[in-house]
Amino acid sequence: MSDVAASAVIVTGAAQGIGRAVAERFAMGGAHVIAVDLRRPDATAEAITSRGGHCVAVQADVADRDQVRAMVATARERCGAIDVLVANAGIGFPDPILAISEENWDRVLAVNLKGAFLCVQATLPQMLDRRRGAIVLVSSIAGRRASLTNGAHYTCSKYGVIGLARHLANELAGTGVRINCVCPGPTETPLLAHVATPEQRAQMIQQTPLRRLADPGDVADVIVFLAGPGARHMHGAIVDVNGGLY
Ligand SMILES: NC(=O)c1ccc[n+]([C@@H]2O[C@H](COP(=O)([O-])OP(=O)(O)OC[C@H]3O[C@@H](n4cnc5c(N)ncnc54)[C@H](O)[C@@H]3O)[C@@H](O)[C@H]2O)c1
Question: Does the reported pTM lie above 0.85?
Fold first, then answer.
C-alpha cells in the first residue's frame, strides 16, 4: 500500500454502497480521500475522520461539467495533486424498453457515462503533468452482457464505460497514467435494493457459482488493488468481480 498511503484519491458516489467502501479502504491505507456525491457525503467523511483518517466531503453532480471542475479544484486546494480517480457514481432504473422516458434515458447516460468522462477530463491534466496517476472506472456485469435488473439505458451506459476505458488505455500510452475498469456483479447496496425484488435477489444468488452476492467491500478491494502498485503492469483491463456469474 505504500503508493496508496502517499496518495490523494477522488472517489465519486461515495455517500453509500461501493463508493463509500472504496473511500473507507483508501483512507484506512493512509490516503487523503476526496469523497464526492450528489448529496454531500458527510457520514462517509465522519466515519473516516473519527478513525483518524483523512477525508474531505464534496457535493457535486458528476453529470455537470462546472460542478466537476469546481470539485477537482477543491480537491487540489485541500489535498494537493490527485493521484487516483475512482469514477464510481452511477444510477439505474428497472424500466422495460417501452417505459423508458427520454428524461430517464438522458439522465442515466449523463451520470454513468458522461459523468465518468467529465471526471477523467477534469482530473487528467495534472496527472499528465506529473506523469503519474491511476484511474479506475466502474462499469458492471451489465456492460458484459445485459443488466439483470436495470433497463437498456443502464446496459448501454455500462457498455460505454468499458469503451471509454479501452479507448483511453490506448490514448494514454506512454503518459505514466494507468486506466482500468471493474465490472461488479450484483452487489448488496442501496442501488440493488432499489431495483431488485427479493425474488430476483434470491434467483441471482442461485445463479452465482459462489452462491452469494458481493458486498461493497468485495468490489472495493479490487478497485484499491487496481489503483495501487500491485497493479503497476495493468492497463486497459476490464476486471469482473462477480462471483463467477457470467
Ligand atoms: N450494486 C450493484 O449490484 C452494482 C452492480 C454493478 C455495477 N454497479 C455500479 O457500481 C457503482 C456504485 O453503485 P452502488 O450499488 O454502490 O450504488 P448506490 O446507489 O448505493 O450508490 C451510488 C452513489 O452515487 C451517488 N450518485 C448518483 N448520481 C450521482 C451524480 N450525478 N453525481 C454524484 N453522485 C451521484 C448516489 O447519491 C449514491 O450515493 C455504480 O456505477 C453502479 O452502476 C453496482
Answer: yes
